[in-house]
Design goal:
The complex is a heterodimer of chains A (263) and B (304). Chain A has 263 residues and is of the alpha+beta class. Chain A has seven helices and seven strands; from the N terminus they run ααααααββαβββββ. In chain A, the strands form two sheets. Chain A has a five-stranded mixed barrel. A two-stranded antiparallel ribbon of chain A has the order 1-2. In chain A, α2 packs antiparallel against α3. The radius of gyration of chain A is 23 Å and the shape is globular. With 304 residues, chain B is mainly alpha-helical. A two-stranded antiparallel sheet of chain B has the order 1-2. In chain B, a hairpin with a 4-residue loop joins β1 and β2. The radius of gyration of chain B is 19 Å and the shape is globular. The chains are: A alpha+beta (263), B mainly alpha (304). At the A-B interface, α4 of A face α4, α9 and α11 of B.
Chain lengths: 263, 304
């Protein structure tokens, strides 16, 4: 039941996101008759613009202005609008079918550019360094549930400051240690760029799934197994092997990407 | 420089074959057919299947034709794939485009072609998987033409270029020397007038799909020989083929050939100044440039 509801929430979210794009297309195509095959490019430009302006500094691509979320949001919208304006100047007087081809070309060219211009967009790996604005800290938990449960279980006082510093206070050393342990377990995450000793859990056609610590596993894609071309994953690793892996980042779906090649 | 030029001419000949079919269809049926490039994948995969089939039936067909990496079975498979792809283009027209032609406007056709492209691409991915495949696993060694500057050419590439040029020459002869060719040109120029003059329009439309489909198949197979075969060939080549068609002028077969070489050479020469990742943007710039400077293309004529 929870699964169904959370799927419906996910579905409604995506539907509303797409509705916004469709509203724009309806204004343009429905009301003025100007066909736009490049909506996807402007959709992407807004998202890239937001992270460019609002994200933290990254080594592999530009950005890192760390603007306040609503400001970055408006900035992304304006950036996309600016690109659309230039495209409009160039294409608006074309015949209908040529307009369709040219705007479709904008979408294809934008995708190619973003996939290849790593300095700008992080390439196929995508951009990092942007926190989702509405997500609660896992130590606090939804509505403070997690923090209450830690306090109840150990009897300590916990204070979390705005910048994320967790302070634990109690007269009892054991209670502090127990609470610390819980918080550490909760916040134990993979750090990008760190090398871990992992165990190969599963080998598939396109790579190997490696567990970096209990409960957390990531994928070493076949292209990241070794330098050069790897014909079969089993040439390099087998299930149960212990391997050194470097955490490279998260993919589009938030899955951990690991690499043996880059260790 | 010369190496890039040679590669560009080769890619150009492949694009030209694809663009001829697109220019005929776009001019006769008055719509931008975004599914045309998917016929390249259909052709390439059909050739792959029949190559394996023929090789399995008669093992002597599996011998290669020195010094090419081509086998006799692949030559046969190319012919079969061309005909099959042409027939599937007719079938797609019968199932989708003809129905919309009778009721909807040109933009409905454009949308339908987006849909057809997605269906074809995903059907191919479903049956053959997303993995890239090769016609031959033999390593074809390039021949060193000159060491300074370094120029490398593979025998297969020479074959592709010569074969593509011969097919274009053959098509030129058909267009300019036969009654059928005249009728084809007449239909492309003005379908209604051609029909009044006694040309069987629906038969000619079928022929246009057949020719466009088989040339697209040949283009896809040659692309596969030169690179690899995967289900996204169509997605990767749709923009270059459109660029070739538009640059040459929609409706002009010779323009399509010219446009194909122009796009192929420009994309490869761009590699000298741009990182290779950006070369897909070149066809887009060509489309924009041509549409703004010469809206009817280099060899195209304005039409009512």
């Amino acid at each position: 039941m929870i699964g169904l509801i959370s799927y419906l929430v996910f579905f409604a979210t995506v539907a509303s996101i797409l509705t916004i794009a469709v509203l724009g297309l309806n204004l343009q195509w429905g009301n003025t008759g100007l066909f736009n095959g490049g909506v996807a490019a402007f959709f992407g430009a807004g998202a890239y613009g937001l992270i460019l302006l609002g994200g933290t500094e990254q080594a592999d691509h530009i950005g890192g202005f760390e603007l306040f979320y609503p400001v970055a949001l408006v900035g992304g919208i304006l950036l996309s609008g600016l690109i659309a304006w230039v495209v409009g100047i160039l294409t608006i007087r074309l015949r209908r079918d040529y307009l369709a081809i040219a705007t479709f070309g904008v979408a294809v060219a934008f995708e190619n550019l973003m996939r290849n211009a790593e300095w700008l967009s992080g390439g196929a790996k995508g951009m990092r360094g942007f926190e989702r604005p509405f997500e609660d800290s896992i130590v606090i938990g939804p509505g403070g549930k997690m923090i209450k449960s830690i306090v109840e279980r150990t009897g300590v006082k916990i204070n979390i400051s705005d910048d994320g510093l967790v302070s634990i206070a109690s007269g009892d050393h054991k209670a502090v240690d127990a609470a610390l342990e819980i918080v550490r377990d909760l916040t134990r995450t993979v750090e990008i760029g760190t090398v871990y000793d992992g165990i190969v859990k599963r080998v598939v056609d396109f790579g190997a799934f490696v567990e970096v610590f209990p409960g957390t596993e990531g994928l070493v894609h076949i292209s990241n197994l070794a330098e050069g071309r790897v014909r079969a994953v089993t040439d390099v690793v087998r299930e149960g092997d212990t391997v050194k892996v470097k955490a490279m980042g998260l993919d589009k779906r938030g899955k951990l990407q690991l690499s043996i090649k880059d260790v | 420089m010369i190496q890039h030029l040679l590669d560009g001419i080769l890619v150009g000949s492949i694009l030209s074959l694809g663009a001829i079919g697109l220019t005929l269809v776009m001019h006769t049926l008055r719509f931008a057919n975004f599914s045309h490039a998917e016929l390249l994948s259909v052709g390439a995969y059909a050739a792959l299947v029949f190559d394996g089939l023929f090789g399995a039936i008669y093992s002597q067909l599996r011998s290669t034709i020195e010094p090419l990496s081509l086998t006799w079975s692949l030559i046969l498979a190319i012919l079969v794939a061309m005909i099959l792809t042409g027939l599937s283009a007719i079938l797609i027209d019968k199932l989708v485009f003809r129905r919309i032609r009778e009721k909807g406007d040109e933009l409905s056709m454009v949308f339908a072609s987006f849909g057809v492209a997605m269906v074809l691409r995903n059907l191919i991915s479903l049956f053959f998987g997303l993995k890239s495949q090769l016609f031959s696993n033999d390593i074809a060694f390039a021949i060193v033409i000159s060491r300074d500057p370094m120029i490398l050419v593979k025998p297969d590439q020479v074959f592709v270029l010569v074969a593509a040029l011969m097919v274009m020459l053959l098509f030129h002869l058909i267009l300019s020397r036969t009654t059928f060719g005249y009728a084809l040109q007449a239909v492309a120029e003005n379908p209604v007038l051609a029909q009044i003059s006694g040309v069987n329009l629906s038969r000619m439309l079928k022929m246009i799909w057949l020719i466009g489909g088989s040339l697209a198949a040949l283009s896809g197979i040659f692309y596969g020989l030169n690179n690899q075969i995967n289900p996204v060939i169509g997605r990767d080549l749709v923009l270059p083929i459109f660029a070739a068609t538009i640059a040459g002028g929609i409706g002009s077969v010779y323009g399509a050939v010219l446009g194909g070489f122009l796009v192929g050479i420009a994309s490869n020469l761009a590699l000298m100044i741009l990182p290779s990742g950006y070369s897909p943007a070149v066809p887009f710039l060509i489309i924009l440039g041509v549409l703004i400077l010469r809206p009817n293309g280099i060899l195209g004529e304005a039409r009512a």
